[in-house]
Design brief:
Keywords: Aminoacyl-tRNA synthetase, ATP-binding, Cytoplasm, Ligase, Nucleotide-binding, Protein biosynthesis. One of its GO terms (molecular function) is ATP binding. This protein is mainly alpha-helical and 320 residues long. The chain has two domains: 169 residues, no CATH class; 115 residues, Orthogonal Bundle (Isoleucyl-tRNA Synthetase, Domain 1).
Length: 320
C-alpha cells in the first residue's frame, strides 16, 4: 500500500515498501512492550542501527503522525506514504468487518485516523484520490472483508470528517454543504473548493447569485432537464436571454482551463460578473413559454448556467 501511494506521489516506491515492511516490527521488542509510548521512535533508532536508508528510518516514527489534533505531519513523501497506508489500512479493515463507529464510541480511533489522513493530504497538497486509496486497500485484504459496501462507507465517513474538521476551523456550515453536494474525492481539491466558496461569499454579487441558482435548480428539477441540454441560438428571441446566452458561452470557454487547473476561486470570481445578466433574464424572460421549443431552449440555457457554478459547488445552498 505504501509503495502504491509513493508511486502516486512520484516518490521512491522501493523505499516506501521497505518502510512499510518494517513499520510495525518494533512492536515485538521488549523495549516497546515495556514502554508503549516509544513505539515508532524505537523503530526509527533500530532502523538506523541496522543501516536502513534515513527516509525508511524516519518513516518508522512518522507513520503515526499526526498523533493528536494540531500535531506535526510527516516530513517527507516516504513518511507520508507509510502514514497514509497505515491509516487507510485501519479504516478499510475495520469498516470491512462492520465495526463502524457509533455515537461517541470509537474504540479503534477511526475518526482520528480519518482526520489525520485528510490533514496529510490537504496540508501537504498531495493529489490523491480517496476512492483509489480505498479500492487499493480493499484489494490487498483479499477475501478477508465481510462488508461489501466498505468503499462507499469509508468515503462517506471521510466526507463527514471533512465537515467536522472545517467546522472546527470556523468555516460556515453552508459553505461546507455547498462543496459536499459535489462530493469531491480528492481532499486537496475539496479544500480548494471550500476556500473558493468562502471567498465567493464575501462578494457583493454572492447573495443574489445564490438565490438565482436556487431558483434555477428548482425550475430544472421540476422539468427534468438533462444535464447535456444544448442551446439553439436561433430560438433566442428576447434581448435578455440573448445576453445571458452570450455571457454563459463566453465564460464556459474562458473557464475550462481555469477549472482544469483547480483554480475555483478565480472561476467563481469571474462567474460573479453574471449577476446583472441573470437578474435581467428573470426580470424580462418567461421561462415557461407557450412554445414548447422556446421553453426547452430556455431550460437548456439555465442548465448551462447551473453547470458553470456546479463545476465548483452548489452555491444555491448558501444562506443570506
Amino acid at each position: 500500500m505504501a509503495g502504491f501511494i509513493a508511486e502516486q506521489l512520484g516518490s521512491d516506491k522501493a523505499l516506501a515498501e521497505r518502510a512499510g515492511l518494517l513499520s510495525k516490527t518494533d512492536l515485538m521488542t521488549e523495549m516497546v512492550m515495556e514502554f508503549t509510548d516509544v513505539q515508532g521512535v524505537m523503530g526509527m533508532h533500530y532502523a538506523r542501527i541496522d543501516g536502513e536508508a534515513e527516509e525508511v528510518a524516519v518513516a518508522q516514527n512518522e507513520q503515526y503522525m499526526p498523533r493528536f489534533a494540531g500535531d506535526a505531519l510527516p516530513s517527507n513523501p516516504i513518511s507520508c506514504a507509510v502514514a497514509l497506508a497505515d491509516k487507510f489500512d485501519t479504516l478499510v479493515g475495520i469498516f470491512g468487518i462492520g465495526q463502524t463507529p457509533k455515537g461517541d464510541k470509537d474504540p479503534f480511533a477511526l475518526r482520528r485516523a480519518a482526520i489525520g489522513a485528510l490533514r496529510i493530504m490537504v496540508e501537504k497538497e498531495l493529489e490523491l484520490d480517496i476512492h483509489a486509496l480505498v479500492e487499493k486497500s480493499r484489494a490487498l485484504f483479499g477475501d478477508k472483508l465481510t462488508n461489501d459496501n466498505v468503499g462507499e462507507e469509508v468515503f462517506e465517513f471521510m466526507l463527514g470528517r471533512f465537515r467536522a474538521w472545517y467546522q472546527d476551523e470556523g468555516i460556515a456550515v453552508d459553505v461546507i454543504q455547498a462543496v459536499l453536494a459535489r462530493r469531491p474525492s480528492q481532499p486537496v481539491d475539496f479544500d480548494r473548493r471550500v476556500k473558493a466558496v468562502s471567498h465567493f461569499r464575501t462578494l457583493e454579487q454572492a447573495e443574489a447569485l445564490a438565490a438565482a441558482n436556487k431558483r434555477v435548480n428548482n425550475i430544472l428539477a421540476k422539468n427534468n432537464v438533462t444535464s447535456d441540454a444544448e442551446v439553439n441560438t436561433a430560438l433566442l428571441s428576447e434581448a435578455a436571454e440573448q445576453q445571458l446566452a452570450r455571457e454563459v458561452a463566453a465564460l464556459t470557454a474562458e473557464l475550462a482551463p481555469v477549472y482544469a487547473q483547480g483554480d475555483y476561486q478565480q472561476a467563481l470570481t469571474r462567474l460573479a460578473s453574471l449577476r446583472e445578466a441573470v437578474d435581467n433574464f428573470f426580470d424580462n424572460v418567461m421561462v415557461m413559454a407557450d412554445d414548447e421549443a422556446v421553453k426547452q431552449n430556455r431550460l437548456a440555457l439555465l442548465s448551462q448556467l447551473s453547470r458553470l457554478f456546479l463545476n465548483t459547488a452548489d452555491i444555491s445552498v448558501l444562506q443570506n
